[in-house]
Design a protein that fits this description.
Layout: H1 3-18, E1 33-37, H2 44-60, E2 64-68, H3 76-82, E3 90-94, H4 97-100, E4 116-125, E5 127-132, H5 140-149, E6 155-158, H6 164-176, E7 181-184, H7 188-196, E8 202-206, H8 210-214, E9 218-223, E10 249-256, H9 261-275, H10 278-286, E11 291-294, H11 296-316
Parallel strand pairs: 1-2, 1-3, 6-7, 6-8
Antiparallel strand pairs: 3-10, 4-10, 4-11, 5-8, 5-9
Helix pairs in contact: 2-9, 2-10
């Protein structure tokens, strides 16, 4: 072997060592994958999906590009999927609004049980009720007492009508016998900006409030899960306050209907690797979330249960059309 040939061989070997090996899938995309996040940039879902996309890009060998489509209570990703080809190059986050909004319309734009292929469940949001740090209410009971004595005067924000946050705040009001005024926004970041600016009195939101609570800019009055989240174990849950409500929103990724099972398997495997990557787990931890993984079959079964759960929640607060 000549010196030049050996140098070329060594250079080629070093290049292979420096380049991450692509995962071996039966299907691989031949162009970028669009990952639709149906919220404004800056919220917890947007932040962790950007890290997930970066890691998945290395798995698939094609860019996974985040596309923000806020509005319509998080359902614009679903409507995009319904109009897309089932070739594996368009996926979307599927928040609970996808299963709720069709129940509110006599002519829904999509059928969440028939129009999509469910790929992988990823995680769930942590919710809570927050006020400004200088607000007069130190506890949720004090806020509810004030709202009860002043019907309609408390304005609270969420990321939209019929969102998980909106339904939970109305369920809290129904349990406590209060009337307050809902102010919808297009995304979590907009809601919290309005709260900090004094445009609203309170917010029912996902854990983008965490850094502001830790900085002392917001006060967390209650969390809505089945247990107190890490780092906020001094704050009671709704159940601990005598309000029998648990509001947790699991979500994952789906594609258009009639996707080839080989494509679904490859997308599942690639995004699963990204889900459990150290970089993505660290981003989930930042928002006090954890992996809530389900494979394609189990996720499909879970969304059928969730659809009926959403129907019952709407019925309880009188929002289900007759």
């Amino acid at each position: 072997m000549t010196i030049l040939t050996r140098r070329r061989t060594l250079l080629g070997a070093s290049t292979l060592l420096a380049t991450p090996a692509l995962a071996q899938f039966a299907w691989r995309p031949d162009r970028p994958i669009r990952l639709i996040v149906p919220w404004t940039a800056g919220g917890p879902a947007d932040a962790h999906f950007r890290v997930l996309a970066e890691v998945a890009t290395r798995q698939f060998g094609q860019p996974v590009i985040i596309e923000n489509r806020p509005g319509a209570t998080g359902t614009l990703g679903a409507t995009t999927l319904k109009e897309s080809r089932p070739d594996g190059t368009v996926v979307s986050q599927m928040p609970p609004g996808v299963f709720r909004v069709p129940l509110l319309s006599p002519r829904p734009a999509f059928d969440p049980l028939a129009d999509f292929t469910y790929i992988i469940q990823i995680t769930g949001s942590v919710f809570g009720t927050v006020v400004r740090a200088d607000a007069p209410w130190q506890t949720l009971s004090e806020l509810l007492d004030y709202a009860r004595a002043n019907p309609g005067r408390v304005n609270y924000g969420t990321l939209g009508i019929a969102s998980s946050q909106h339904l939970a705040m109305e369920r809290i009001a129904a349990q406590a016998g209060v009337t307050w005024t809902h102010v919808p926004y297009r995304g979590t970041s907009e809601t919290l900006t309005a709260l900090i600016s004094g445009h609203i009195d309170a917010a029912g939101e996902s854990s983008s409030w965490a850094p502001m609570v830790q900085e002392g800019r917001l006060r967390l009055l209650a969390t809505w899960g089945s247990a107190r989240p890490p780092h906020f174990d001094q704050v009671p849950t709704l159940q601990e306050l005598g309000i029998p409500i648990v509001a947790e929103a699991q979500y994952g990724l789906a594609g258009p209907r009639n996707m080839d099972p080989v494509i679904v398997e490859a997308l599942h495997d690639g995004f699963k690797e990204a889900l459990f990557s150290p970089a993505h787990l660290a981003m989930l931890e930042r928002f006090h979330q954890r992996p809530i993984y389900l494979n394609s079959a189990d996720y499909t079964a879970a969304v059928r249960v969730q659809f009926e759960t959403e129907r019952e929640a709407l019925r309880q607060i009188g929002m289900l059309p007759s």
